[in-house]
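Quick one: structure tokens for this chain, please?
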Amino acid sequence: MNAFLNILAKPIGYLLTFIYGLVGNYGLSIIILTLIVKFLIYPLYIRQIKSTTKMSLVQPKLQAIQNKYKDDKEMQNEKLAELYKEEGFNPMGGCLPMLIQMVIIFGLFALLQNPLAFIKNSNMIFAVHESFLWMPDLSQPDKWILPILAGIATYISFSMQSKQQMDTSQAGMGGMMKMMKYVFPVLIVLMGRTFPSGLTIYWAMSQVIQIFFNMRMNKIREEMLAEMKGRKNKGGKK
């Protein structure tokens, strides 16, 4: 497990150390690192939303095939493959971007939870204990202000994402996602009160950026739906 964490966290640690060498402030370095990482994986977010939007459009046909050939799995798989080819849809298209995002997030989480385990630069030994804004020591948890800000940002971001995902969820998943919209931010507040402030800064900043990403992705999704609706109407007139 430690070897795996080293592979994930050490390269990000080098980047964090480089940024700190430029700006000389640990809190600001974390914010800049978060911006860099989020914008590097932005194309993956776009690919994922396009995949989930296509899924929502294909879903009715997919369910019809599953119901029609529920007793013939071989024919069902054959018809589903034909549907995917016809619609230009890859059912795994949204999984790879999500996996890559999770790997990066896991590496960042491990690094910022215990930075000195992955960063051997002597300058960073003192840097992780620097003050930032109202926080006297970024290696220690902030008990209220930062966790609450992180929770609010998480609530807004998660609400926007759950609205996108509910279109592709199964019938029984809607209630669960609505519940998680409230539970997850509360968990973030509680965890933020125990994590190093540096890690909570990353999470809060990450969710603020994600809100703007979600706004862009909602626009892309609406454009795709409008385009597909236009094609359908045009095809129906022929």
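Residues 228 and 238 are 16 Å apart (CA to CA).
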